[in-house]
Design a protein that fits this description.
Elements lengths: L1 E4 L2 E4 L17 H8 L4 E5 L21 E5 L3 E10 L13 E8 L8 E7 L11 E10 L2 E8 L6
């Protein structure tokens, strides 16, 4: 079901992209540039190997400024999640229930490489801690693509 509101198009289970611009700085711009073309890249400290997500200029583990951007597969595991049943605004009534999850990204040693994002195209009873998910990027406009996740089903694993 699709409805229109002050937030634009509303779909059940999908929290609308209220952010229309990245407001990126030099530290985060590479992430958003890659997202626009459907790629997930994250900064990794070249001194100690710690992934920095969200991107920030200094490594919290060793205080190094040295980094390289590493492309990830976009696969991950649900670390935690919540089902939002109560709309945060009256215009969001058609979006609920929706799922917000913290996803631990594959290939990042876990610590420092988790993302909070909406899990779409699944019913609340289909998800659990440990569920496998894959990132997708919803194109909002020429400047912005919103990361979301979908469950990995059947032989996709």
């Amino acid at each position: 079901m699709t409805a229109t509101s002050s937030f634009g198009e509303i779909r059940k289970g999908v929290f609308p992209s209220m952010q229309k611009h990245t407001f990126a700085d030099p530290t985060t711009q590479p992430f958003w540039d890659a997202a626009r073309v459907g790629r997930l890249i994250v900064p990794c400290c070249t001194r100690c190997g710690t992934f920095r997500l969200p991107p920030y200029p200094i490594c919290y583990a060793c205080q190094s400024f040295d980094l390289e951007w590493v492309e990830l597969t976009g696969l991950g595991t649900v670390y935690s999640y919540t089902v939002v049943h109560h709309p945060l605004h009256p215009d969001l009534v058609d979006a609920v229930p929706y799922l917000s999850a913290i996803v631990e990204l594959d290939g990042t040693q876990g610590e420092g490489a988790r993302m909070l994002a909406n899990v779409i195209d699944c019913e609340p009873g289909e998800i659990s801690i440990g569920s496998r998910v894959r990132i997708i990027f919803e194109h909002v406009n020429d400047d912005m693509s919103t990361p979301r996740f979908r469950l990995v089903r059947g032989d996709e694993k």
